[in-house]
Amino acid sequence: MAKQITDKVQWVGKVDWELTRFHGDEYSTNRGSSYNSYLVRDKKTALIDTVWRPYDHEFVARLKQTINLHDIDYIIMNHNEIDHSGALPELMREIPDTPIYCTKKGEAIIRGHYHQDWNFVNVRTGDTLSLGDTTLTFIEMAMIHWPDSMMTYFDGDGGILFSNDAFGQHFASESLYNDTVHSGELMYEAEKYFANIINPYSQLVAKKLQQIKDFNLDIRMICPSHGVIWKENPTQIIDKYALWCNAYQEDRITIAYDTMWQSTRLMAQAIAEGIGEVSPHTTVKLFNVAHEDKNDVLTEIWRSKAALFGSPTINNGYSYAMAGILEMVEGLRLKNKKAAAFGSYGWSGEAVRLIGERLTHSGLTLVDEGISLQWIPDEALLEKCREYGRNFARSL
Ligand code: FEO
């Protein structure tokens, strides 16, 4: 069902309550998601973005209940990853000549995905499209988070920023607005989204936020392409992005470990105890990365001022689960994070050195060579871990 957002704008997207994984298996969506599409009606009518491909028939059928498809004058594609462009082929079968407004990269991506010679109109930052009494203005957002990304600003109804992925959250809600959902759950999903998807492009985010500010836009609502609409205090999410994109950290330490016979887990716990003795106000969390949600672990690491990574040595290396987390940590391009490695071993004991090398390569700052213990730690060795934790906390 279409939902009226303002006088001239309707939401015509899809709430996906069943979604538990996104980007293949790269991102957990424990609270579902939505693919937001919007109709903007003035003398002319524009459709902004579509939905993920599995919902293409449903999307077009519902759209037909809302509008005669031939009354859509323009299609605006802010970004063409499949979750937003997936319903284009189904829609374009009905209205094949309707112009598609997108960036030049957007056209290349649509052509690469769907291999159709549709009526493309390339737009750049500052270009406008009149809908009659109101106007759409385009703002390129290259690499936030794809090369084709852009935002569209509507100057009617008090000003609405259609921000696409930026300011989004994987968060299903029938009620659509930020003031109708649990604020803690919402902000967690917004943070997780930033940490896992946007953070690698933080430097670009900072510049873009400044550009948006320089446009001096009236913003009554921010309508992203995932999750709820920022209606109450809409620019709060812009302020959050300004904070998050600047090497964000809290007084928090994350200990991520894997364990085979519990020795590395015992080390993790003892290190945490040592940190707690020296720095009792620091939030310290432990995660067994073989079992915990990888994106939640990454979110915690992103929030932290420092993180420790522990693995037993197996086959002269570190564990499969630790390898996955380290690969994802490298991709986040974290800044200003201290780190260390630890782990137990039986004989060769390479894991700690190799984890340390990987962390350094990923741009984290190692505080020391880490701590490595053979076999099962007794009380004396656990005390050594506690002391290591104390020194780690003192080094921050
Ligand atoms: Fe929501 Fe980058 O697609």
Q: Which ligands occur here?
A: MU-OXO-diiron
Number of helices: 12
Can you identify the CATH superfamily of the largest domain? Ribonuclease Z/Hydroxyacylglutathione hydrolase-like
Strand residue percentage: 15-25%
The CATH class of the largest domain, by name, is Alpha Beta
Low-confidence stretches: none
Side by side, the strands of the main sheet go 1-2-7-8-9-10-11
Helix content: 25-40%
Tell me the structural class.
Answer: alpha/beta
Would you identify the CATH architecture of the largest domain? 4-Layer Sandwich
First-residue to last-residue Cα separation? 53 Å
CATH topology of the largest domain: Metallo-beta-lactamase, Chain A
* Mean of all residue-level pLDDT scores: 97
Described by the principal axes of the CA atoms, the overall outline is elongated
Let me know the largest β-sheet. Answer: 7 strands, mixed
Count of the domains: 2
Count of strand segments = 22
